[in-house]
Amino acid sequence: MANLTEEVVRRGVTAPLGLRPTPRWARIYRSRGVWRDQTPVSDLRRWRRRTPDAVAITAHRAEHGVRHLTYREYAAYVERFAGALHELGVRRGDVVAIQLPNWWQVSTLILACARIGAVTVPITTSIRPRELERMLAMLGAAVCVTVDRWLGFDHSAALAEIAPRLPHLRHRVVLGDHVQDGEVDFVRHFEDVPWEQWHGISLDDPGEDPDQVSLVTFTSGTTGSPKAVLHTFNTFHAGCSPIAIEDELGPDDRLFTPHPLTHGWGVKFGVLLPLLAGARSVVMDTWEPDTALRLLVSSGATALVATPAFLSELTSVARQRCERLPTVRRIVTGAVPVPPEVITEVGEWFRVVPQTAWGMSEVIGGTRTRITDPVDWPTRSDGCPRADLEIDLRGDGEITPERPARLYVRGASVCLATVNRDTGATVVLAEHDHGWYDTGDIVVPDGRDGIRLVGRTGDRIGGLAMIPVLDVEQALRRHPAVREVALVGYPDPHGGELACAVVVPDAPVTLADLRHHLATLQMTEWYRPSRLEILPALPRNTMGKVEKDRLRRWLRDGTALDQCPPG
């Protein structure tokens, strides 16, 4: 790992953080009203003035209880944190990495970076030193804010170990009880010192630039090498604004998401969308479904955004406790293939039919089913594009379930560029294919101007003809002995590829059982797996996505799964 990082640093492979949208597209998107001349700092300024005493953030910490932050307090901390960053030498264009749990400080740091024009790099706490070093090296991060210890891992010690190999890293900032020499104590430096009185980093100062690269997120790397994704506040705004308008979000709304605020979904639904609407963001630092249920009820949450794994656990606990969600009027799920049974169970128990959505780190807007769709539609569709997004389904000949299309997108919520984390290879979208972005997703039309996911190119199994991975997985989940399953390709002796079912069972099951089950469903014979592997759990990332790259390497090389690190 050290050799790779040294090579990245030596060759100066850093993301083109000075990249800006082309004037043509900037004019087009502003004329459509999906881009603007302000950043989220303006939203915070507006709500500090209109509703200063309204709660902006409700943050649950497993060891400390709930902290409520009003819009007045939120704005004051943003000014203070901006001054603290300025004192550390952070200026416009400098890179600040944030690797923290879901604490209120994350939202405040993102806004503080926006205030001084720094580039924010949110990084989930599940990322370990091997991957963290690559990220910080590639981006030339000047400051990294991390937690001391979290869920049994010493993050501050890990950062200290890799720091000597990161020549651009000037400050290691640690939030927690165990701060060592050479580290900046977050509480003392950021929270306790009234920097706003000395540096004057006021929210009311001009200088907002919504078209500069301001947020760099990383793709999950579940099916390929992770990429840095370069976003502006306008690309995020284009993904948030249509939702705020369509859902009529306002100050009375309370949006809950269990996802990391240091992930694209968390930034969108846990930070920027509530702020745009003047609503309340409700978050928790440690997922526990019973606690989440109580928090949803006590906070009066009106919207819930979570991937299927979270919704399934929440529904199970709610049934056990005979508890409903009386104030929730909107549930959105997606990010991973959504099992139809999850839609059905959530809709039946909470009496709110979830809307399914498609999106990715590169595309903040994406698709979503409509509330006017038939009740069962979310079990058959991943939605139609929002107003800002164009889609193009490309395939050879007629598009059918057996011959699906590759999904290309273009629009105001699509990132400016992607950068391969390990090689530095950069793709500027405006310079390729008239701005169309190849998502890597394989889809078919849903019959109502939307799409239905079939799989990803990284999941592709087969040659000229492709096995519909998601359809096969959904069919296998209907077997009574199968709790979870991932269909993964492995090489056959003739240079081709066959399908392996990696199963987490609820009861003993054999390959013959699974093949017979699929045969009774009249599934095409060569779709059926020719190999079965049993695991106690599937490897997943923080978004609940199965890390199929790890499974693929495990099947291909015979390496122990715990020795196959992510990405």
Helix/strand layout:
Layout: H1 2-11, H2 23-31, H3 40-50, E1 55-61, E2 65-70, H4 71-87, E3 95-99, H5 104-116, E4 119-122, H6 129-139, E5 143-147, E6 149-150, E7 153-154, H7 155-162, E8 171-175, E9 184-185, H8 186-191, H9 195-199, E10 213-218, E11 227-232, H10 233-246, E12 254-256, H11 264-277, E13 280-284, H12 289-299, E14 303-305, H13 308-321, E15 330-334, H14 340-350, E16 355-360, E17 363-368, E18 384-385, E19 389-394, E20 405-411, E21 417-420, E22 426-428, E23 437-445, E24 451-456, H15 469-477, E25 482-491, E26 497-505, H16 511-520, E27 531-534, H17 548-557
Parallel strand pairs: 1-13, 3-4, 3-5, 5-8, 8-9, 12-13, 12-14, 14-15, 15-16, 26-27
Antiparallel strand pairs: 1-2, 6-7, 10-11, 11-21, 16-17, 17-18, 19-20, 20-23, 21-22, 23-24, 25-26
Helix pairs in contact: 1-6, 3-4, 3-11, 4-5, 10-11, 12-13, 13-14
Describe this entry's structure for a reader:
With 567 residues, this protein is of the alpha/beta class. The protein has a domain at 461-563: GMP Synthetase, Chain A, domain 3. Helices cover 32% and strands 24% of the residues. It has 17 helices and 27 strands. The strands form 6 sheets. The chain has a 9-stranded mixed β-sheet, with helices on both faces. Strands 4-3-5-8-9 form a 5-stranded parallel β-sheet, with helices on both faces. A 4-stranded antiparallel β-sheet has the order 10-11-21-22. Helix 11 links the parallel strand 12 (254-256) and strand 13. Helix 3 packs across helix 11 (264-277), helix 12 crosses helix 13 and helix 13 packs parallel to helix 14. The chain is globular.
